[in-house]
Amino acid sequence: MAEELDQETLAFAHRMFDLAREGQTTELIGNVAAGLPVDLTNDKGDTLLILAAYHAHPETVAALLSHGADPARTNDRGQTALAAAVFRRSTEIVTALLAAGADPTHGGPSAIDTARFFELPDMLALLQRD
Asked: What pLDDT digit, counting tens, does each position of 97-120 carry?
């Protein structure tokens, strides 16, 4: 049986997800350096990396990747940080995620599918570079 988290722990976790959404890199990475799991996942399966990518915070994405965040993780809907960055049209984040090994065909919809669906030829070209 899963152990229930106390209110203080839940509040702390919610704060960490808010830091990722807001691009508060220094505080978030300070907590990661102190032992916060870099791939912490919320109740929807979103990781800190997915949230930072979706909310277009390239510095936060880069810092999370440098601390070992997994660019291949998907949320409960099959979405990746790379697909989120494509949707947000963030060339800087897409480039960082690709450099970290993110697969443009992974997830559902994948980053490539997202670029095609939203008719983002610049993003599609970036994803299909060799």
From this structure: 999 999 999 999 999 999 999 999
Whether residue 84 contacts residue 50, with contact meaning beta carbons closer than 8 Å, is answered with yes
Distance CA 54, CA 51 (A): 5
Q: Is the pTM of this model over 0.90?
A: yes
Yes or no: say if 46 and 75 are a contact pair by the CB < 8 Å rule.
yes
97-100 own/partner pairs: CB under 8 Å, 24+ apart: 97/53, 97/61, 97/65, 97/71, 98/126, 98/127, 98/129, 100/65, 100/71
Extract the tokens encoding 77: 């809907």
Residues contacting residue 99 through CB under 8 Å, at least 6 positions apart: none
Neighbours of 5 (CB within 10 A): 11
Domains and CATH numbers, the chain: 7-127 (1.25.40.20)
34-65: pLDDT as tens digits: 999 999 999 999 999 999 999 999 999 999 99
